[in-house]
Amino acid sequence: MGVIQGYDLTVKSSLHRITVKVFTLSTEVKNLLKGILYEVTVAAFNGGGQGPTSSVFVVQREEEVPSIAPQNLMAHATSFSSIAIAWNAIPLEQANGLLKGYIVTLDGSDSYLFVCANQCQMTIRGLKKSKVYKLQVAGFTSKGQGVFSDYVMTMTNLDGCRALGMEDRNISDSQINASSEFGTIHLAHHARLNNGDFWAPDGSDVNPWLQIDLKKKQTVTKIATQGRSLQNGDFNQWVTKYSLKYSQDMISFDSYKQFGVVKI
């Protein structure tokens, strides 16, 4: 039979597995996640190899509330009466148990919105027009709610928005510039809605852009584009995707983002 030299101790869950060699009749396994069921087995070994594995013993650390708030909250208006919000999931190590979901709250409201644990974003509807909202998010387990995140602020779209002037020419030709122009007919200032002509970049322009100087700080809630369509159907052309940049000095530009990602 041989002399027992030690024991192979295995601790496993649906998330990870730990196997250690033990040379005494007791040991301590650290860093087990709270609220997670672990199956523990032991098998003795000697010079001839490992013996039979013991029956399974189930252990579980007691759950607690999450120890941290969701991180990197981001929000933006999606209409006059709705806001989209997103955040990073609470890591397993800080969830302190099986995360059942998230609580989203708006300032000045006694109601809470609940989101399933496998979702880290939601759209809140039925809000007031042109109103600034402060939002917070917290995770919860069966033991209760964890700490709320810092506030993130955003405003629903303005009521009574109006076109800024690309169609009615309130924006003058001199306020419109481009990276290049196709010949002398498809000029930058022709880039207007329902215009008889159109703007087109030079064929060698690999990074074309159109720039509009609004002269003062403006709130832009929507952008419309319009393709080229000739009456005889030839050369139907339009932009399929674009990104947006903005600046206050016409020198340094920032990309428009949603949830931290450049919106295309």
UniProtKB/TrEMBL annotation:
Keywords: Repeat. The lineage of its organism: Eukaryota, Metazoa, Cnidaria, Anthozoa, Hexacorallia. Residues 1-64, 69-159 form the Fibronectin type-III domain. It comes from Acropora cervicornis (Staghorn coral). The keyword Repeat applies. Signal peptide: none annotated. Pfam families: F5_F8_type_C (PF00754), fn3 (PF00041). The keyword Transmembrane does not apply. Residues 161-264 form the F5/8 type C domain. PROSITE patterns: FA58C_3 (PS50022), FN3 (PS50853). This is Contactin-3. InterPro entries: FA58C, FN3_dom, FN3_sf, Galactose-bd-like_sf, Ig-like_fold.
